[in-house]
Write a structure and sequence with these properties.
- The structure is a single chain.
- It is built from nine helices and twelve strands.
- By secondary structure, the protein is α/β, with parallel strands linked by helices.
- An eight-stranded mixed sheet has the order 5-4-3-2-1-10-11-12, sandwiched between helices. The protein has a four-stranded antiparallel sheet with strand order 6-7-9-8, with helices on one face.
- Helix 2 runs parallel beside helix 9, helix 4 packs across helix 5 and helix 6 crosses helix 7.
Length: about 290
């Protein structure tokens, strides 16, 4: 695929695409290839476009991401990066700002509460839920009381706050010890807890990737949708695609595979090998859709 600039192997071959494992997935891929101008390509960020790293501040999109999206985005109705991160952080870590060819890209941060448009560079965002500040202030004491302060790390996310256990002496034990106390803390302040890959995020209810995806598909008038994710927080988006398919909008579910989370793999139509596999799939789609 001579147009891309990184050295990631192409597991599908030039212009070739993986065969979806389900009839619904095959219908979704067929619809996307037949009418790309009315297709939405929706992608999670961490673990899907960016490899998971111990320090989320150091996460960066796979180097092939921007070239692949720049080749694909002009051929579809919209590419949407849907993430729990602040939109500005995903834009910076993805290298999306001012990248040629990404005019059809939007970043829906904080599960759609924020929106950044590549075409204009504008960001729209509401005021944070008041419970987020209260939870943030109480978190250090909660971690200490649960005996899980060592190695855990609090990530400020503006409209949410997350506790990472990946750097704890026993990451899974710290995760398990904090699950109940953080759920209680969140409930006291009108928030919910979203578990992920060695992370527990406290955020307002009603914010999830399924809501963001459904609203974006509706707003764009999309006739088909592809969604790619890797973690438990992507399950609502998977459910949204299932609902859209039941209502007659074809869809394709892609899993950025990992050993840490298997629930998406079990539900996906196509499983690829992490962010490098997602990039290869995006490139293959761009090549297939090239005039």
């Amino acid at each position: 695929m001579g147009s891309h600039t990184d050295s990631t192997p192409d597991p599908f071959g030039p212009g070739a695409l993986p065969e979806p494992a389900t009839s619904a997935g095959r219908a979704g891929l067929d619809a996307l290839l037949a009418d790309p101008g009315h297709a939405v390509i929706a992608l999670d960020f961490d673990g899907t476009l960016a490899p998971i790293v111990p320090d989320p501040d150091r996460a960066r999109a796979h180097p092939g991401t921007v070239p692949a999206l720049a080749a694909l985005a002009p051929r579809v109705a919209s590419v949407a990066v849907i993430t729990g991160r602040p939109a500005e952080v995903a834009v910076a870590h993805g290298g999306f700002a001012d990248a040629p060819g990404l005019e059809h890209l939007v970043v829906l941060g904080h599960y759609g509460a924020e929106r950044w448009d590549a075409a204009t560079g504008t960001l729209t965002a509401p005021e944070p839920h008041p419970g987020v500040a209260a939870v943030r202030a109480a978190l250090p004491g909660t971690l200490e009381h649960a005996g899980a302060a060592e190695g855990t790390w609090i990530e400020e996310k503006g409209h949410a706050v997350a506790v990472h256990t990946r750097r704890a002496p026993d990451p899974q034990a710290a995760f398990d010890a904090l699950d109940g106390p953080l759920a209680d803390l969140a409930a006291r302040h009108g928030l919910i807890v979203e578990p992920g890959r060695m992370v527990l995020e406290l955020r307002p209810p009603g914010m999830d990737k399924g809501v963001a995806l459904r609203e974006h598909v509706r707003a764009t008038g999309a006739a088909c949708v592809l969604y790619a994710g890797d973690d438990l927080g992507d399950l609502p988006a998977y459910a949204a695609v299932d609902e859209l398919r039941a209502d007659g909008t074809p869809g394709l579910l892609v899993c950025s595979g990992s050993d840490e989370v298997t629930r998406l793999r079990e539900r996906a139509d196509v499983v690829v090998d992490g962010p490098a596999g997602v990039v290869a799939l995006l490139r293959a789609l761009a090549d297939r859709l090239a005039p």
